[in-house]
Design goal:
This protein has 325 residues and is of the alpha+beta class. Strands 1, 2, 3, 4, 5, 6, 7, 8, 9, 10, 11, 12 and 13 form a 13-stranded antiparallel sheet that branches. Strand 5 and strand 6 form a beta hairpin. The two termini are 17 Å apart.
């Protein structure tokens, strides 16, 4: 049934069955099951997001936690002194928090948590990052400003014609120019779907690999290169379908991620190919992602609360769900 079945039957997001066991996230590049799912470019980041979802966190809680771990595990690509854009989509619409210019990744994380998080604002939400980099993370968060400009114009849903399913709505990169990589930049990405039907993606970057900014005396971390708004053009893309009551339900999130080095392939074309594969060609999500030359991460609501998550193993990608099949 796949994506077509989800659209025809309506998106029913339900908690996992009682008595189901929580799967330990490993190094698998794909996973399917219930209770929410995550795909990222690092096993530890995936594990942190998995644990937050399993403890009742939202997609934003989990995505921010994974992004913090990525900042520690891949500091030359997505360090605490770099930038992040957080894209969140649920039945109420799509929105983005820009923490790239002139602010920083912790600014975006704090604002996203305030808007869409379920947990209290403390370090617990950052999962494994608490013991990996507690001191610099505290300093970085303490220096974050509380004033952010939130924009939804870059993720306003637009029509996407498909052969088999008619016109669907898509928000984010693939409908504009924001899924292509800026030359010389590298990105660390995490996408998360929770059990309540919301999707959150976080894309972080230091600009050119290694960053080029001075060390911030307040936080003790290196500032990244000057980044354009929304972290260059690596904006995630979310496919939506009509749901009950006339709202749009998020079904699929795909995001570029160049991992430890800049991508040479066209990420925008790769994202579009995945959307085409899922809406017209009938290809499964795992096959669609792995067929692309550019590294991607993706999560999809399939049907009746089932989630599939896929990372690109060529870039160190991993995936996990809370309750594996």
């Amino acid at each position: 049934m796949g994506l077509l079945g989800a659209i025809c039957l309506g998106l029913l997001v339900v908690p996992p069955p009682l008595g189901a066991s929580v799967a330990e996230p490993g190094s698998a590049a794909s996973a399917a099951g219930f209770g929410g799912g995550v795909a990222s470019q690092d096993d530890e980041a995936t594990r942190a997001a998995h644990d937050i979802l399993a403890s009742g966190g939202t997609s934003t809680d989990a995505a921010v936690g994974a992004a913090a771990v990525l900042a520690v595990r891949q500091p030359r690509v997505a360090g605490l002194g770099g930038g992040s854009v957080v894209v969140h989509v649920d039945a109420s619409g799509a929105a983005a928090v820009d923490g790239c210019a002139p602010l920083s990744a912790p600014d975006a994380w704090r604002a996203a948590e305030a808007a869409w998080g379920a947990k209290e604002e403390d370090l617990d939400v950052y999962g494994a990052a608490e013991h990996l980099a507690a001191a610099p993370l505290r300093r970085a968060l303490a220096s974050a400003t509380a004033h952010l400009s939130r924009t939804s114009s870059a993720v306003a849903p637009q029509s996407l014609p498909t052969e088999r399913l008619g016109d669907l709505d898509v928000a984010g990169g693939a409908v504009g120019a924001r899924a292509a990589h800026v030359a010389g930049d590298a990105y660390a990405t995490v996408v998360v779907a929770d059990r309540w039907g919301s999707l959150t993606a976080v894309v972080s970057s230091m600009g050119r690999v290694g960053g080029s900014g001075a060390v911030d005396r307040t936080t003790g971390v290196a500032r990244g290169a000057d980044l354009p708004a929304l972290c260059g053009d690596a904006l995630p893309t979310v496919l939506l379908a009509p749901g009950a009551g006339g709202q749009l339900d998020p079904l699929l999130a795909v995001a570029p991620g160049s991992a430890r080095r800049p991508a040479t392939a066209d990420s925008r074309a790769a994202v579009r190919d995945v959307l085409q594969a899922r809406t017209s060609d009938g290809s499964g999500l795992r096959d669609a992602v792995r067929a692309q030359a550019a590294p991607l991460v993706a999560v999809e609501y399939v049907r009746d609360g089932r989630v599939e998550a896929v990372g690109d193993p060529r870039g160190g990608g991993s995936a996990a769900v809370v309750h594996a099949e």
